[in-house]
Design brief:
This protein is of the alpha/beta class. The protein has 9 helices and 7 strands.
């Protein structure tokens, strides 16, 4: 089962070294999480030089201080990537006692969740999971999916979001409301307007159709 976690303003703790730390930090920052990182000197220097985000705390002390950091943390999710199996296992064991969710890179047997390959286009999110067996293939499949999504699809999602309240207020019957949603999606005039990047025209057309049914 794939789940889209609501990470806005949630605390994420990342413990590890190397490029993987920055990759995961960027992912969580993109979802507006509050990110704390415990890493080695080399990784810390790279993070600071790349200025990856303002919602970011980097703990001093290096990986040797992980017990103190984990012991004082109550993160929503902890990500671990030290490259050392024994250390990963030791940190994960402690993290499970304080964190809602624990993810250890390339150690599926230690995880509460598997990070997915996520295609992000506007408000659209399409997740691909190989259950941790092949992150590389998740990326390959994600890029294939991205190539299938058109600009019109992204604008259609935006349109649906903007007329959602009007739909609920105008049409009480859920079954009828569902039919109207699909009518908006299939309406040729709306589709043509979105293809031409005439979003406001498409929105007016959608509201007119909603009023007809309401």
């Amino acid at each position: 089962m794939l789940v889209d976690l609501a990470l806005n303003d949630k605390d994420a703790l990342i413990i590890g070294r190397g490029k993987e730390v920055e990759i995961r930090a960027r992912q969580f920052l993109a979802e507006k999480a509050n990110v704390s990182i415990l890493s080695d000197a080399v990784t810390k220097k790279s993070l600071l030089s790349n200025s990856i985000g303002t919602r970011l705390i980097i703990y001093p002390g290096g990986l040797a201080s992980w017990k103190r950091v984990v012991g004082g943390a109550r993160p929503f999710v902890t990500v671990i990537s030290t490259g050392d199996l024994n250390l990963d296992e030791e940190i994960a064991k402690s993290a499970h006692t304080v964190s809602n969710l624990v993810y250890v890179v390339d150690r599926p047997h230690l995880n509460d969740l598997n990070m997915t390959g996520v295609a992000k286009l506007g408000d659209i999110r399409v997740a691909v999971s190989t259950k941790g067996m092949s992150p590389a293939m998740s990326g390959v499949l994600r890029r294939k999916i991205e190539s299938l999504i058109e600009p019109e699809d992204i604008l259609q999602v935006k349109l649906q979001g903007e007329v959602r309240d009007s739909l609920k207020k105008s049409i009480e019957d859920p079954a009828l409301r569902k039919k109207v949603v699909y009518k908006l999606i299939r309406d040729r005039r709306i589709s043509s307007m979105l293809q031409s990047d005439k979003f406001e025209d498409a929105r007016r057309r959608a509201l007119e159709l909603i009023m007809e049914f309401g």
